[in-house]
Amino acid sequence: MTSQVSSPAEQADEAVVGEQRKPAGTKDVRRLDRVIIRFAGDSGDGMQLTGDRFTSETASFGNDLSTLPNFPAEIRAPAGTLPGVSSFQLHFADHDILTPGDAPNVLVAMNPAALKANVGDLPRGAEIIVNTDEFTKRAMQKVGYDVSPLEDGSLDGYSLHPVPLTTLTVEALKEFDLTRKEAERSKNMFALGLLSWMYHRPTEGTEKFLKSKFAKKPDIAAANITAFRAGWNFGETTEDFAVSYEIAPATAAFPVGTYRNISGNLALSYGLIAASRQADLPLFLGSYPITPASDILHELSRHKNFGVRTFQAEDEIAGIGAALGAAFGGSLAVTTTSGPGVALKSETIGLAVSLELPLLIVDIQRGGPSTGLPTKTEQADLLQAMYGRNGEAPVPIVAPCTPADCFDSALEAARIALTYRTPVMLLSDGYLANGSEPWRIPELDELPDLTVQFAQGPNHTLQDGSEVFWPYKRDPLTLARPWAIPGTPGLEHRIGGIEKEDGTGNISYAPANHDFMVRTRQAKIDGIEVPDLEVDDPHEAKTLVLGWGSTYGPITAAVRRLRNAGESIAQAHLRHLNPFPRNLGVVLGRYEKVVIPEMNLGQLATLVRAKYLVDAHSYNQVNGMPFKAEQLAKALKEAIDG
User: Fold this and answer.
1) How crowded is the C-beta side of 228, counted as CA atoms within 13 Å?
2) Mean pLDDT, residues 533-561 taken together
3) Does residue 579 have a cis peptide bond before it, meaning omega lies within 30 degrees of 0?
4) Cα–Cα distance, 163 to 161 (Å, whole number)
5) Which pLDDT score is estimated for 26?
6) What pTM does this model have?
7) Number of CB atoms found within 10 A of residue 528's CB
8) Fewer beta carbons within 10 Å, N or C terminal of the chain?
9) How far apart are CA 479 and CA 499, in angstroms?
10) Is 631 exposed, middle or buried (0-12, 13-18, 19+ CB in 10 A)?
11) CA 548 → CA 287, 394, 435, 556, distances in Å?
């Protein structure tokens, strides 16, 4: 008998309703082990704020969680249109979870466009809460509804809750001196209050947040809090919501510690600050704003008290040029960007390779080419990071696998850059950058020691006995050259992009010297110490699924599904993509089949095939969205059976 991958409704990691019980009040409370909620509306409806607040309260409650913000690239997309729909999906549970979930159990649709854009993702039986006030004839026609979907029977397979959110919000705020338009803006808080009641979320944090956010506008703060409470009370009193739900804290999923909810870009920012403190170096960021990397610039600019200096340059080239100058001056230097910016920075990255200075290039990948899909995710910059410079210009590459892992990956990238005197590429992406999950705040003694020793004086003795400073005399273990701070007496040396002579750093056009320097720089990167690749293979499988970056969550969820269905499959995930872990070739050789899922057209697979002569099978997606666990499980099952 062959085992089959079950449908979403049958999966162990979908919402499971437990036994019903009666609380002290009149309404039933049902216990779930997990739920997936999606808020959707126009860009101006505040869906990202609503989702973020629900997420923060869920994190404070102690659930494990994973989020997927999804919004248009336009600052304010056309209202009421399908391209203008903004959504926020949250998956939270009483146990360890890895993805924002495949199919929402609850959809909050603020208008017809939000309903139409998202209803296709819902499983039968899902709950739909719609703002009926927005279902006007004109609004429905704008998205192709000839008749109201609330009345034509097309939603009969779902649990539909028609709620006049706008009317109820305006009514709740009638005592405030607000125009109707101003009052309507609080309808997202009404919806948040309703969902907070449905899922027993704490409310104190949201009310405190609203008071802080609108501290200079106390009437607006009071109005939003009133709308929030009105939504809660509506859930408590209306007959349309006869049941509320409980999802217990995920106590078994978390080791002991202090936790907070964190997004990938915030974790990366904190990781950079921690790296600068552990290295005892000032942190300098030279950056040009670009989606989805701009949040790092915004966050680091708030931390001057930690010795952070941020420079918003006039363009991408100026940003990395300033960062490289800061590296020459003795700072932990960083530049942040996305794929199009990496292309513009490529010449200066090559200069950093030649100068052999530590520099972190953070690429928050997005859909391309060119401007592409600024607010959507992709993993298509791997080959650009590996080869996107003229000449032989090798650069180490590090890729985080979860939002919280962005913190550790920033520390690791800094370790490599400082130890080996090299620019380092850190490849995150939009999914990690904007997504969030619980993060255990590390203790200070858990952080690595990144202390740097600058050159202090002469390091070479000439034949005549005189002592001189050679800027390209290397550490025999790391092949790193000394880091000499400008202005240090006796350490004067040339910098620039023309090839240097080994040792002296003088300009050299000698063919033999160029050959030697090129091979030495490559050997330095090849010799970087990285941990061996760990393989999760409890049953000596014949098929290995190999991933990198943000595919970790969907791959791991898919592997869990297959193992629960009785299949044998191994899993490994790469953080270091240049150099690869030294045992990668041995690991690949143990398996009959290797499958590599990527959000590109097979870039890691191309590298693996070329380097290890392994017939790796690609499974690819480039639609701007992360993989779904069910989708990957089916593909991996076909690979096992094929």
Assistant:
1) 23
2) 97
3) yes
4) 6
5) 66
6) 0.94
7) 18
8) N
9) 17
10) middle
11) 26, 19, 17, 12
Q: If you write DSSP's letter for every residue of 281-324 in order, what string do you get?
A: --EEEEE---TTTHHHHHHHTT-GGGTEEEEE-SSHHHHHHHHH
pLDDT attached to residue 13: 41
- Express each pLDDT in 428-475 by its tens digit: 999 999 999 999 999 999 999 999 999 999 999 999 999 999 999 999
Strand arrangement, sheet containing 359-365: 308-312, 283-287, 332-337, 359-365, 423-429, 397-398, 576-578
Tokens of 640: 């096992």
- Residue carrying structure tokens 């050997």: 523
The pLDDT-based confidence of 20 (bands split at 50, 70, 90) is very low
Res 347 pLDDT > 70 = yes
Q: What is the torsional sign of CA 96, 99, 100, 105?
A: negative
Tell me the average pLDDT across 28-51.
96
Among 20-34, 181-195, 417-431, which stretch is predicted with the lowest mean pLDDT? 20-34
Task: Determine which helix (DSSP H) or strand (DSSP E) holds 355, and give its type and residue range.
Answer: helix 339-355
| H or E stretch at 141 | helix 137-142
pLDDT above 90: residue 78: no
Q: How many CB atoms lie within 10 A of CB 122?
A: 21
Q: Which two tokens stand for residue 366?
A: 């997005």
Strand positions, DSSP E, 178-331: 243-247, 259-263, 283-287, 308-312
Token code pair at residue 560? 């869990």
C-alpha distances in Å from residue 396, one per residue of 515, 528, 577, 587: 20, 8, 7, 21
CB-CB neighbours of 554 under 10 Å: 26
> Any idea which residue has 């990668």 for tokens?
584
Q: Any idea which residue has 């990527």 for tokens?
A: 598
